[in-house]
Structures are given as C-alpha cells and as structure tokens.
Fold:
Amino acid sequence: MAANYDNSAWFYDRLSRLVYGKALVKSQVYLLKHIPENSGILIAGGGTGWILEEIAKVHPSGLTITYAEISSNMMALSKKRKIGDNKVIFINEPVENIEENRLYDIVFTPFLFDNFTEKTLLNVFSHLHKRLKPGGMWLNTDFRLTGKWWQSFLLKSMIVFFRLICRIEAKKLPDIERQFEQHQYEVIDQKSFFGEFILSTAYQKTGL
Ligand SMILES: C[S@@+](CC[C@H](N)C(=O)[O-])C[C@H]1O[C@@H](n2cnc3c(N)ncnc32)[C@H](O)[C@@H]1O
Structure:
C-alpha cells in the first residue's frame, strides 16, 4: 500500500517544529530567492501548505504554482492557505501520476524523497526531471547523514514512526544527491541546517 500522510496531517507541523524548531522552515525559505518573478513552479509533497504562504511573502502575485500532494488531509489544509494573488492549481495525486506536457521554470521538492526507496526515488525523479525546463532550477531540501551518531538515531526514529503511522516505504535514506549528479545538475547554491542534518540545494538543469 502506498504511503499516505493523512494520519499525520493534523499534528505533522507541530511535531516537526517540536523536534526541529525553525530549521525545517528556514531550510525551505532559504531557497525561495531562486524563484524568478512570474514563473511557473511545480511543488511536490508540500504537506500542510505553509510553504505557499512563505512564497506569497516573497512573490505576492504573478506566479503559477502546480501543487501536487498525495494526502487528501494535507491537501485540505493546503487549500486554506493565504496564497496572495498567485495562481495555485491543487492536484491531489502522486506527482508522478500527473500527465501533462507543461514545462516548469522551478521544481520544488521539500522533504519528499526521504520517504522513498531507491526505486521510487528514481521513478519520481525521472518524472520531475522531464517537467523542468532546460536551464530551470530544482530546489531540493532533505535530510542527509554526515556521520554524526544523533543524525542516524533521529533518522531511524522518524522512519520507524512514519512507517507505522503513514506506511512510508523507506527503510533508509535513498541516495538523493546521486540522482542530481547522474542527471547533469549543477549546484548553484547550497546551505546546511540543524547540525548539517538538513541540506538545501538549488540545482540548475544543465542537460536536456
Ligand atoms: C515528509 S512530508 C513533508 C511535508 C512538507 N514538505 C514539509 O516540509 O512540511 C512529505 C509529504 O509528501 C507527500 N508525498 C509523498 N509522496 C508523494 C508523491 N508521490 N506525490 C506527491 N506528494 C507526495 C506526503 O503526503 C507528505 O505530505
């Protein structure tokens, strides 16, 4: 059965802020400066949708945002967000199931890939890769392990918790950075948060 964050929608933000303080928010807000005016954005796995409000603070209008979220409960919360005068197309489906020919200036994947096995990562990554314009920017934030014991401990605890509550499929962190390397992305900007456990990267698509 596919992972579903429905069960955690009502407490997800509170729990994540209890554990990580403002780091999860800061790590994503850090990347918003790479969004150009009047651009087209694809957000995959936006959770409760607070990122839409943060985006509206930077760009109150002019953006067209496709917001794909698999969980209906997360989607319901997202639809209540203040989006300014930006246009948001809400799609309550796995992002890899969206069939369209549209190309985006920006793809945004905030803590999406840590849910996945290597196989799902590859599948979802290839789908998103095809939707990004050549020269476009892919903004990615996720956990990574830099060898500190507490990182492995926290990651294991999260995986056990979310496997139980939301049936996520991951048993370990997939190799996210390798996908970007293999698909010819160039790192334009990068910053780590929460003792290097969180990595935010703005990648530029250099190939086709
Ligand atoms: C770990 S949460 C992160 C939520 C949010 N980005 C945040 O940082 O607060 C991952 C989110 O991705 C969604 N998700 C998982 N797989 C997805 C997929 N294939 N397509 C779209 N959304 C997905 C889940 O429902 C969940 O809301």
User: Anything to note?
Assistant: Residues 89 and 187 are 28 Å apart (CA to CA). The radius of gyration is 16 Å. Strands lie at 40-44, 61-68, 85-91, 104-110, 132-143, 185-193, 198-205. The chain has one domain: 5-205.
